[in-house]
């Protein structure tokens, strides 16, 4: 098997698996008939990120990026719909969703109307998606600081950390093979933040630990 094809399948398997971790939150909402203690913004921001990378994959004609982010966007939309159904804060969720929709439409108009066809549009879209992905990978660092202070890792998910590590590594290697820095660079922080989490689990994890809720993921 060609190494690039192997990496392509690794990206698909690990990334879809990472996006699927939100199914645990979906199950909790259905069982409790409530969206309490479930974060909404990670679903929304991950959906926007997926749609951005989907557009990038279409412009680049990369079937791996297109397939992965199509699945990711559909899963996030499912999570958003279920969350809206069970949440008591429907007005706040509606406003956040409308704001995200407005951002998406504005971005789409900018990249399809004001930018010329070709490399300029692809590069600027890749840069935009990269910045968003990096910010999503680095956003949990504030939680890690609190974990170090409290010496308690119960708010972290070990399976999600493993999935993030292998997903980020796969995309970095895939980007290297394609010589695409917009794929490689934004996924590099995911490797480092995962390694930090592994260290925190080794340092502070109790013998038994329950899996916490889903948090935002990338690409």
Classify the beta-strand content into a percent band. Answer: under 5%
For the secondary structure, the number of strands is 0
How do the SSEs run, as a string of H and E? Answer: HHHHHHHHH
First CA to last CA: what distance? 25 Å
Average pLDDT, rounded to a whole number, is 88
Q: What does this protein look like?
A:
It is a multi-pass membrane protein. The chain has nine helices and no strands. It has helices spanning 3-19, 23-32, 41-60, 63-86, 90-114, 119-138, 141-150, 158-178, 181-204. The radius of gyration is 18 Å and the shape is globular. With 219 residues, the protein is mainly α.
Give a quick precis of the structure:
Helix 1 packs antiparallel against helix 8 and helix 6 runs parallel beside helix 9. The protein is globular, with a radius of gyration of 18 Å.
């Amino acid at each position: 098997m060609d190494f690039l094809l192997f990496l392509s399948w690794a990206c698909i398997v690990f990334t879809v698996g990472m996006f699927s971790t939100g199914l645990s939150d979906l199950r909790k909402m259905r069982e409790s008939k409530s969206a309490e203690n479930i974060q909404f913004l990670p679903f929304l921001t991950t959906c926007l990120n997926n749609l951005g990378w989907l557009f990038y994959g279409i412009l680049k004609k990369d079937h791996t990026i297109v397939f992965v982010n199509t699945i990711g966007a559909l899963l996030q939309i499912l999570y958003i719909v279920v969350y809206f159904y069970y949440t008591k804060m429907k007005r706040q969720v509606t406003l956040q969703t409308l704001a995200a929709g407005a951002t998406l439409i504005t971005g789409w108009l900018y990249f399809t109307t004001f930018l010329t066809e070709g490399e300029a549009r692809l590069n600027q879209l890749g840069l935009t998606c990269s910045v968003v992905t990096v910010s999503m990978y680095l956003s949990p660092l504030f939680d890690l600081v609190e974990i170090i202070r409290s010496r308690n890792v119960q708010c972290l998910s070990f399976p999600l950390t493993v999935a993030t590590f292998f997903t980020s590594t796969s995309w970095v290697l895939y980007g290297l093979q394609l010589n695409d820095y917009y794929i490689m660079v934004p996924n590099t922080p995911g490797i480092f933040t995962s390694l930090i989490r592994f260290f925190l689990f080794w340092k502070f994890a109790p013998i038994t630990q329950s899996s916490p809720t889903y948090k935002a993921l990338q690409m």
